[in-house]
Amino acid sequence: MGLRCGIVGLxxxxxxxxxxxxxxxxxxxxxxxxxxxxxxxxxxxxxDHRLKGxxxxxxxxxxxxxxxxxxxxxxxxxxxxxxxxLGNKFLxxxxxxxxxxxxxxxxxxPNVVHVQGSPEPLRDIEIIETELIFKDLETVEARLLKSKKxxxxxxxxxxxxxxxxxxxxxxxxxxxxxxxxxxxERELLDALFLITMKPVMYVANIAESEIGQExxxxxxxxxxxxxxxxxxxxxxxxxxxxxxxxxxxxxEEKAEFLEGVGLKESGxxxxxxxxxxxxxxQTYFTAGVKEVRAWTIHQGDKAPAAAGxxxxxxxxxxxxxxxxxxxxxxxxxxxxxxxxxxxxRVEGKEYVVQDGDVxxxxxxx
Length: 365
What we know:
Blueprint lengths: L2 E6 L6 H9 L16 E6 L3 H10 L3 E3 L2 E6 L26 E7 L15 H27 L6 H18 L11 H9 L8 E6 L12 H13 L2 E5 L1 H9 L3 H11 L5 H13 L1 E7 L3 E8 L4 H8 L1 H5 L1 E7 L1 H6 L3 H6 L4 E3 L10 E6 L2
Parallel strand pairs: 1-4, 1-5, 3-9, 5-6, 6-7
Antiparallel strand pairs: 2-4, 8-9, 10-11, 10-12
Helix pairs in contact: 1-7, 3-4
């Protein structure tokens, strides 16, 4: 599995600039609304120092990091769900993502037009959230029409009752993911790919001159207060700085630049770390002479599910997993050394994979 995040926000909040910085995909980022007329998709390599540690020992032919897919959705405006701006056809692209990165403009710049006149984070967030709620309402109403045909069965009646309740909540402007649901309700709602069921990270885009003052910025703090009430997270970045970092070649240059502007790490690293945390994701590794590779799984996944990320046949025919922790693998300078010291474990179907496990699967199909 790969992590897929959708970037949303009003036009001219720094969304496409951030996307370009994150992915170096070259999406157009011009100073006028609606320049993003198709969703741009970029792939980010997940930075993980452990890959270097493993590759130095194994010396593989190639090293493959885990990836995050970023989808840049066209700038939305009030009334998008009714056809304003570019209309709501782009909202459909958000349905397939795992999480929403909501970019909010927190910088004041007279040279960059704001579609609402000036940045007001809470108002700007509400505009976007309202359009996403309307899109879900459209989805639920369409499903209700289909469900009426099968509403004579017990399952059909239960689905109708849930859909009617969800419709009422959406009409009240409620964000569904912030409400409590039973497992069976969540299963049905997940099948509809509702946008408002997805976790949200607010990305507060600040000015270069404000770096280091994040804790005292009123426009950022009002977002933090909202996020705290909702159980969401806030990431503060300067998309202009991120764009400059992306243009630098070596890691040494990037580190020097970050130090010069008073940052310990790039927004990219923080965004990926926060995204993994928000979605309960972690990494395990496979390490052989052909390749050293990082794989993304959910925290709590058992060995067969982790094997299935490589290939469904691995999960179907799972026999056992040979496991070495990353630290043991590095300390013992590889599999042979770990095995010699009794640090290679043979685990069965109930083994819960730990972050950083180096794994080899035995299967039979």
